[in-house]
Write a structure and sequence with these properties.
Phosphorylase Kinase, domain 1; alpha+beta; two-stranded antiparallel sheet; 2 domains; globular; Aminoglycoside 3'-phosphotransferase, Chain: A, domain 2
Length: 278
Amino acid sequence: MDPGREVDLRQQPHAHALERAERCLGVAVDRGSAVVKRRSVGARSRRDTWVRLEVQPRELLGTRGWNGVQAAEVLQGVAKPAWYQGASWLDREAGLMWRADETQLVTATPIPAAGVLRHAPRLPESWWDTVNASLDALATHRPAHPATRHTTFVTQQRITTLITRVFGDDVDTTIDEWTAVHGDFAWPNLTAPECWLLDWEDWGAGPRGFDAACLWMGSLAVPDVAERIAAERAGDLSTRSGRVSWLYACAGILDTETDPVFTEPARHRAEVLLGQRR
């Protein structure tokens, strides 16, 4: 396989890998329920569990998250599906590493199923209570491995590089609090009406407030929701590391996005954050 080419299961065949996952885990998967993403496929099994198949090029193993769904089983007090078993194998001919995990089945619906939030979801107060309790419990852990975001490790250097590229090199980007974070804390990985936090392959160490900043960033098309997130997670976002995480989220938008629905609130928030740091 070309090392520079990324895998995309939405475009590439993967039935053979799903069949092997069934054999390894001793389950039968309902193909009609399959949810296919770029590097993973998930489907309901006939014993009412969830089977998730993940792939990455062999040469990238060790440079991004792997085995995270199993490793997340140590997390207590977090509303996440329970992990039951897993298997992994190498397809030498294709140069691909595959991993299959069987977890608790969650029947609540992701918000939204894909993409960014465009409409305010109807969320009971108990939903917000669960999110807050889960993030608070997650923050008590200190994992030795870094989280990944968009398949790349979350590091001090990565945060510094993006912020200084967008806002200049006179900004102090030092993170002084590293804690466990989900890494891909986005609406498609949250469900309603019951709140579950899904897709734990990227979790690991990250800056305090990182998850809250990521969810805020994905909510800017619905300002009331973005404001609610900022208020609910103010305890994290008001810390030094939380402000840097928030500035990093703003930098990510301003570095890649052109839609004013996202860039205008990101620019305004960045101005406030930079003003606080002077």
